[in-house]
Write a structure and sequence with these properties.
Chain A is mainly α. Helices cover about 75% and strands about 0% of the residues of chain A. At the A-B interface, α6, α7, α8 and α9 of A face α6, α7, α8 and α9 of B. Chain A binds a DNA duplex through α3.
Chain lengths: ~200, ~200
DNA sequence: CTATATCTTGAATAAACATTCAAAATATAC
DNA sequence: GTATATTTTGAATGTTTATTCAAGATATAG
């Protein structure tokens, strides 16, 4: 009984890319067989169907994002410094990327939201976890006396999420890295101000 | 030679709704014949094809948006007061609406961007005009000595656009009107601060 | 080496889709 | 009232789509 011959993570990353670039609906099975190198039957054997492959890709995306997140936010560095770096990385990501600047989660959420309740809630949960990850960092900074305990950290993390959504959408209209950087810096300043107003 | 029997604007508004709700790809011709009440042939006669109908709907959406915009920003009221009302209206729109909270322009931009250069540039132009409309309002406020002439009005209008993109995306994840209002208020405060820092 | 359970292959299938078209309807022009 | 140009109609068309499946390949177990 042979185990799957293909590298699951690699296949999921290829699928992820195709889904982000073309969108779920416009991604045909043919696109997926091309990008993953798998034959239709193999995909159906491993992931049940196109929807199952999307769900698996979403899970992989979440895992990859969390690793990236942890890479940026370490305990040794001040939260605000880590946040600045995190935002700068998003700016670079948007400026570098040729195709679609959206993240898989928001793109799929907007596209599928009202046609598939389960997928909607999977994505909403992931986005909420991401927002909570910011909040945790702020929380830890308060415990380390780095931020005032008066900070409304849930408001801050929501506003931060909103800002990043906006930044990525703004990046869709042809714009320069300099402009994106200005916007990211402004967002950073506004978050920073929320930590200082006590 | 009979003119078209149907009401063009009404047809386009129906098509607009269907496109926003289901997305361009997932909107079938059958969906469109149902929502517009037109038979396939009539749609092809009047708009050439599905893509043509989208382009016409985008143009109608732009016109409708501009009317709404002018309804909010009148010369008699202070810009910041008008802006507050404008943002509050967006919050209400997101809270009321059952289905998709995105605006047609951003939704179609994210979906189609890299598969149709012409549509991408039509939408980008519309979004840029919208951003410029904010900038014009700020400009007029400077001329009326209502705002300092030191204000970086293009930066302000870009940041405002970004914030609204973010707000609408945030609204896609199930959230309450109260939370959206907090975010809109925060955005308003941050824009306001940009007018005062001189 | 043989048996077996699993995976791979890719052509076949059936449904959904955008689009076409010829016939019928209809409003204006003269 | 007749002619004419345009729109409306909806069934037919051909393509694209996700999905299936039976035959073949392959790695482990005994």
């Amino acid at each position: 009984m042979p185990p799957a011959k293909f590298d699951r993570e690699q296949v999921l990353r290829s699928a992820m890319n195709t889904f982000v670039q073309k969108g779920y609906s416009k991604t045909s099975m043919q696109d997926l067989t091309k990008s993953t190198g798998l034959h239709p039957g193999s995909i159906y054997c491993a992931f049940e169907n196109k929807r199952g492959l999307l769900l698996a890709a979403l899970a992989q995306y979440k895992q990859d994002s969390e690793l990236k997140f942890e890479g940026h936010f370490s305990q040794e560095v001040a939260v605000l410094d880590s946040l600045k770096q995190y935002l700068d990385a998003i700016v670079l990501d948007c400026a570098d990327k040729e195709g679609n600047k959206a993240c898989l989660l928001t793109r799929a959420l907007t596209e599928i939201a009202d046609q598939d309740v389960e997928i909607k809630s999977v994505i909403s949960d992931s986005l909420y976890d991401w927002q909570k990850a910011f909040q945790n960092q702020f929380e830890m900074a308060i415990e380390a006396k780095e931020l005032s305990s008066e900070c409304d950290i849930s408001h801050m993390s929501r506003y931060l999420s909103m800002g990043i959504y906006g930044l990525r959408t703004f990046a869709q209209t042809n714009t320069t890295q300099a402009v994106l950087q200005e916007l990211a810096d402004q967002l950073f300043n506004d978050i920073k101000r929320l930590t200082l107003s006590h």
